[in-house]
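Dear support,

We are seeing what looks like truncated structure output for some complexes. This example has three components. We would appreciate it if you could run it in full and send us the complete token output so we can diff it against ours.
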Amino acid sequence: MNPTGSIRRRMTISLALVAALLSLLSWSMVASFARQAAERTQDNILAASATIIAEAIRSEGGEVRLELPYAAFAMLGAVSEDRVFYQIETAGEILTGYEDLTTGSIAPAAGEVRFETTEYLDVPLRMVRMTRTVLAGEEAVPVTVSLAQTRNGIGTIAGDLSETAAALSVAFFVLAVALTGFVAQLSLRPLNELAQAVARRGPTDLRPVRRQAPSELTPLIGSLNRFMERLAGSLRRSEEFIAEAAHRVRTPLATVRAQAEVALHGAQSHDDKQRLRQMIRAIDESSRSAGQLLDHATVAYRIEDLSRDTINLAELAASVAAALEPTAGLKDIEIRLETSDVATLGDKVLLESALRNVLDNAIKYSPDETQISLTVDQQGDMACLRICDQGPGLAGQSTTDLTKRFARGATVTDVVGSGLGLTIASEVLQAHGGGIELADNPKGQGACAILTLPKA
Amino acid sequence: MRYSDIAKGLILAVWASALPALEVEDRKSYPGEGGAMISVLSTADLDVFEPFIRQFQQDQPAIGVDYTVASSTEIYAAITEGMKFDIVLSSAMDLQFQLANDGYAQAYGSDATARLPDWAQWRDLVFAFTSEPAVAVISRERFSGIDLPATRQELISILRDYPERFDQSVGTYDVRTSGLGYLFATQEARNSDVFWRLSEVIGRLQPRLYCCSAQMIDDVISGELAIAYNVLGSYAERRRTQEGGDRMEILQLEDFGNNMLRTALIPRTAENVTGAGAFLDALILAGLAEEQTWAFPPLQPHARQGTPEFGPIRLGPALMVHLDPLTRRAFLSSWEDAMEQE
Amino acid sequence: MRYLLVEDHAELAGAVVQRLEIDGHAVDHAPDLATASACLSAAEYDLILLDVMLPDGDGREFLAASRDRIATPVIMLTARSQVSDRVGALDQGADDYITKPFDFAELEARCRAVIRRRGGSARNEIALGKAVFDLTSGQLRERDMTIEFRNRELRLLEVFARRPGQILSKAQLMDRLFSYDSDVTENAIEVYVARLRKKLAATSVRIETVRGLGYRVEIA
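Here is the complete output from our reference environment:
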């Protein structure tokens, strides 16, 4: 499967973009507010300083006199390192200060306070102008105070604030991105939980999903359930097909076999009997092969997604032995059980089938009136099932050879049965983390199959 | 008044910028190994400054230095008129500030200027490199039998108690002609009412008015003066180590002290800005040095004992207040009233 | 014993019926579930042989639905593989199952095992003179004696018991006694007859050798 990108990443990126946009917006707003505030502050200070100067103007002997108040200028200097220009003018005559500071600007009326943004000596200025009427002798003389300051301080203050705002915005952004990742994970949790719930299911569990899930997942769950329904239907149909096929093949075989046995019973000549026996053997062999092929397909399918139930191997061994007891009895073979309680985790059907195959094999290869021992015990971390017969032994063949699909023991060419039984057992045990080994019976004649499984 | 005529001209010079040419007090050229030359315009006497120039040239042998001495008002006038100098050093920080405010200085920045505290520079235009207190210098001989005053109030009492002894024996700056004297006077007047009472007391004793610290100190050593009020501490300290220095005593009055910052700026008309920058850096480093390497007191003295810490005069637009002609006229008129009450 | 064979495949059913009758069992044949139901309500059976796939339904489902009213043991006949079908068959209440095609000897052994597990019934006893042969438990009782037999001995005795006085050839006995996948000679029959004689020595049942023809049971 080739993922076309991650939802989480997509969410994180989009949310991060939004956060970046908001950060940028908040920064530019704060920066602009800061500048406005700084400008207002400068205006207020200029106005206050100009007022102090205007208050200091007095008349003496009919003449306008002024001593610049130290405080007015000290105040301007205290706030910022801006250049300061001033001018005091009375009725068109410059009393003191920078002569051409107010060129082109008409003095405000008495009582009026006016702010101007101008230029002087090639630098931008913020200027306040105010006029106050001073009584000089008999005459009321308007005196205009003009006080100007460069705007570097504003720039610096606004710049500082803007930098702080930028730092905050960046911090906000970083935090937002971190939270975004977290939120994305949180939002996707129901999806992950759904995926895990589906993944946890066994291979044959095709029940519809009935989980509480956010409404956005409802269509997905709906589709999933419809899909599972179709899959279940399809599986049912294939199972039915296999069953039908098996039925169609095996029922005629059974008929032929039954009739052959009836015929055998009635046959008189030795040759006839011999032919009928061969016929029955051929039927048995082909039906057995067909059965095992079907079994093998089922096993392979179940191994794909193994269930993990706790299985008591002693009980398992007992039930398998009981099931095969009649078969063994036909040859007066005694199955001896020696079990201790050992548990493993796995698929009960598969393990039962494996053990049955091995035991069935042992019965097939054992001479009449012998014993087969089935022991269950443990060795270290492994549970151990040992099936020992008193048959012909392995004659030097290796486990691999014996368990290899369709192989048959060289010593038992006359026994119906294909080696697929051992192959199935071997595959089941390997799927459970165990294995199967064949060895000559240490207690003398015969062979032992040793099945190992991890303990639960 | 010996200096009254000159004073009139200088007062005009402050605002009218009418002076045709620079009145040079002293000048010396120190050629360097390369062709580069920086022109320095300064209020500091040549003999005080020469060791620093020599030291500078040892470090920067390629740069030649042309050192011109002039009064602070002359310097102000010269720069406003557009005379070309590479760096301007002055003890009149108000005039220096005015030059910067009015756009005659150019901004400069370096590692050295970055080390300066905020109060020692303004807008990268004006840089302080010394902090020099105003002190009083007295003649031991003339003060024999009298307890030395610790405050201005005590000084007033002494002057009142011994009018005969101090008649015509008190020296101070003629604030009309001396930029530095005017700065000290206006700052002191701003800080304390005592200034005007002291001025009135001095005025009754027929004080002698001076243009410069050096002459006042000389006159104290000779015994001609019993006390010189508001003298540059750096000059006094230096003079005490010279001949006759033991006849004088430096008084740092404890009620408050004025600390003038000697400042440098690079005029906008400067031609060798790189050289000027190097010179400025050297000045600042000398001023910031832990150990005193030259004739000037350090910018940041570790202990200024005895006087309450008022800090140096602040570099800021408030310095322009007393340069305003109307304000100046009003101040000088009050001062003259106090000083000339015969 | 009385069997009910539920199997829709007529030829297979015919062969099975024939074969079981050879062994002396009574077999009713039902080709579908409806007939099976009718048979079950009309008569009592020792065992039901139930096919899985039937024209009118699934044998397993039939069994699951009627298990509580039918106490008779059931062996399922299945054409499916062991792994997938076994669990299903046993879960639905079957006593055992056997995969088609089957060996009659094995079918018989399983039937016997299932019946024995369920306790059997008195009808499955054959009187041999003073002795009684219980087919279900596989025991021969005479006076206070109870004789147990091994599997092959038991089957051999059963063959003789069903045909008292009749001469049975070695070949006939071999067909009944051995699976067709083992090559056994007629000498093996002699071995088993010798064992059986030894066990029966204390009883009134005798196995006589009819020279050239075979053996027969004589009751004293």
